[in-house]
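User: Can you model how 2-deoxy-2-amino glucitol-6-phosphate sits in this protein?
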Amino acid sequence: MCGIVGYIGDNSASPILIDGLKKLEYRGYDSAGIAVYGDDGVKICKTKGRIADLEGKLENEGKLEGCVGIGHTRWATHGAPDDINAHPHKGGNGRITLVHNGIIENYIELKIMLEQKGYVFVSQTDTEVLAHLFDFFYDGDSLKAMSKVMKMVRGSYATAVLIEDKPDEIIAARKDSPLIVGIGDNENFLASDIPAVLKYTRDCYLLDDNQIALLKKDSIKLYDIDLNEVHKDVYHVTWDVEAAEKGGYDHFMKKEIAEQPKTVRDTLSPRIKDGKVVIDELSLTDEQIKNIGTVHIVACGSAWHVGMAARYVIEKLAKTPCEVDLASEFRYRNPIVRPNDICIVISQSGETADTLAALREAKSKGARTISIVNVVASTIARESDDVIYTMAGPEIAVATTKAFSAQLNVAYLLAIRFAKAKGLIGENYEKTLCEEMLELPELIEKLLEMDDDLKALAKKYVNSEHVFFIGRGLDYAISLEGSLKLKEISYIHSEAYAAGELKHGTISLIEPGTPVFAVATQSDLLEKTLGNIKEVKARGAKVIALVGEKHSSVDEFADDVIRVPEISNILMPSLTVIPLQIFAYYMALGRGCDVDKPRNLAKSVTVE
Ligand code: AGP
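Assistant: Here's the modeled complex, given as structure tokens:
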């Protein structure tokens, strides 16, 4: 999964492309390159490594002059990250220059066809096939060529092309990978995501699947795959550049952790009115809610952990059966989805390939689809029947934090809405839950003040080889998230277990000194979890207990205790996740890891 940019105007393209790529580096950062149309045609500079390495190479080899260009930052899928496989790629005898985000699934058969026609390939990428195929169809009409390419390839793409004999245009297209067009004054922009153009414009076109954009410095024309002109509404971006910058924090992750009170407030307050949950974006009637058969929740990674928590809350309040699936499994297991079933899809980016495919699978089986998404107008958002946006703003750090919290709160809102529609909770209880939820931002603020304590705690455990997390019910769902946060940014081996499961095998891994994070905030399960704490303690584990502030029964069995404010059990995950995020952050920092861009990961996984 990569990031692409494009610029056409009167200004020097190179610095604008580089700047835009920096804003997209969270999407992939193993190699990068730009191509600029100058006085003597298209010139390319590309390299293995980060944008900074590309800047260094441009410094040494001389800037690329010209006012039209395209650029790319890569997350390798086909071909190792190196100078050859870096984008842009040339097509034909070099008259085509192309960047691409996505995967061409039928690239091998296309490559064979093109080689039989004399095309010579220099890289291992699927993208070079796209460049040569464009050249193959190009007879002077770039639109026709792009349309033919789109009809020939299978897979996902956001692609932008420079053509040697078309110095005054960039042509681009998308399918399954995001692409926006930034509207300027006598200049125009292309990018995989809005932060790349926000410094220059707030007005964008959000391309849909199978759409083509033809950019000139003073015009933008949009077409469908059959070259019928398309008219789109301008999407005006309301959030600011600053939001996309670090705001004085050392890392985006730390800034985004600190933004959670605002994120939760922004996500809840539009949907809680006078002690009632009102989700305007949800088009289901009370009658339809009453008749829901099964709620299928599908997602990946941390979003799946939200799904695990959502099941406990929806089944507890609304008594509607829930199935929670990893999207990558759901899409291929031919799930049993009945007409009255609904499918809740959770995704920060709204572009995760497995989750998108799971959404389409559920739709194809007749389920009504509701997505909980952070990126406005992303593909999952646009393809689901209803979309409930989490108001987290741009989330840059690969490890999700604020979007996770926002998703969790939308899940609570849905559970309460369902329970109320089914007459399973009354106005009073709904009001109580709403009041408690509106207190969450303030309580999270309080938890953020534990920063120094958690920093000290991380210092104590920073050299751990293994860390286990245990919990029951909602605490198990949050243990999964705590463990993933630690794994993905500190590279420490970590597992999360349903506390009652330990004695069925895993407890054999516990030896003297093994850190075990015991999340025990569910008052109705505390006794049971305490039993499991004693089990690991007896094997010499170092127990870090995360409990409600009124509970001290674990103290004698714990080496360290983190206390969080107490509210209704079903809302506790919104509090317990905060110290786990901060602990993971300081563990990663203490081990010198790249907190915002962990190795081998990317913010949005648009390949399966
Ligand atoms: C979480 O910190 C990771 N970035 C990852 O597990 C993520 O949750 C997963 O890839 C799903 O992404 P999405 O929410 O954008 O669909």
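A couple of observations from the model: The longest strand covers residues 31-38. The chain has a mean pLDDT of 94.
User: Helpful, thanks.
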